[in-house]
Amino acid sequence: MTHIWQGLRSGEWVTAARMRGYSLILLGLFVLVFAGWIAVSDGLISSNGQPIGTDFSNVYAAGTLTWQGRAADAYAPALQHAAEKAVFDGSDVPFYGWHYPPFFFAVAVLVAAVPYAWGLALWLVTSFAAYLAAIRAVVPRHETWLVAAAFPAVFVNIGHGQNGFLTAALLGGALHWLDRRPWLAGVLIGLLAYKPQLGVLIPVALLAGGRCRTIGAAAATVAALVAISFAMLGSGIWQAFADSMNFTQTVVLEQGGTGWQKIQSIFSAVRACGANVPTAYAAQASLFAMLAASLAWLWHSDVAFELKAAALALGCLLATPYVLDYDLVVLAVAIAFFARHGLRHGFRDFEISLLAAAWIVPLLSRSVAGVTYIPLALLVELAFFGVVLRRAVLDRASHAPSAPGVAQA
């Protein structure tokens, strides 16, 4: 038992050979699972009656409605569901709501310009490539491709046809370019506004860090996106979006319409345990205040940028009550920046084992929560955030200099 504990403490069990082996095993297993999933499907409908790509059907249906000049109908659940059924020739597929701001119709229109299967493939391949490029830019090592590709959140995202790849690519890219191309980082952050709930702490970090050019570029990007959506879709589209937010908040979030085990927030964990809505919001607000204060201190300090970036990526996931398991692709950004810091300056106790836990947790989080109500991903993220803060404090206390001769990524 002592040997196991010492191994976890040092992280010596996470060897390069094991990383490659585990990654290849997971890749092989998931390829087989997806191949079997497609093989037993009836065309575009899986054996359980859901569309291939599940959530992607709402994006494709919204794009179809936009091509028909009816974009606002995507925000009306009954009309959106009818459009989703029409995509699959009237099949009684489940309802997948459209909850995105109007400027995300640009993506929907593009993927709906081709048949569904091609649109899904185009969406996943391009966004996956962007995700891999962002993570590889943060950690420019040859094994990064394999470890990032085998990250279990990748397969959760593919199974849902979701946007976790795009979110991680935008956030990872923005943080990577923040020092060298602050205006480009701002544009990427502005584009991230398509998932506004994941970006609420980004202004806190940027303001604390005095990143005025990035803030200006982000604000200008959002303003441009809003203006373009007004020009292309009319002012009524934003009213339709505003009207739909009550449904999203009450049915999807507060009543757990998506399923408590899928939502990876402290709000969902508290609600799953039987607490009422005000109690869940109070827990979320308390966590948000802690995260905001910690990030403000961290980004205003002189600690290594990699620690600031890792903490912000984790904060984006922890701060919102509405974060699903496919959003855990963003964990790869936090893992990559923290790993880069450790590779340059060495790892402290338990850090390597915690990175391994963060890497594997998307594979387990939904099923564990569904059976036990234990919010495994939330607990790992909180532990990870605490370790980042601990590392920042210890690094400052020791005044550790940067490793000489190490090129910046």
Q: How would you characterize this protein structure?
A:
This protein is mostly helical and 409 residues long. The chain has one domain (99-245, 255-397). It has 19 helices and no strands. The chain has helices at residues 2-10, 16-39, 56-67, 77-87, 105-111, 116-138, 144-150, 152-160, 164-177, 182-191, 202-208, 212-233, 236-254, 266-272, 277-300, 305-318, 331-345, 351-372, 376-398. Helix 6 (116-138) runs parallel beside helix 9 (164-177), helix 9 runs antiparallel to helix 10 (182-191) and helix 10 (182-191) crosses helix 12 (212-233). It is globular, with a radius of gyration of 21 Å. The protein starts with a helix and ends in an 11-residue tail after the last helix. Residues 402-409 have low confidence and may be disordered.
Summarize this entry quickly:
With 409 residues, this protein is mainly alpha-helical.
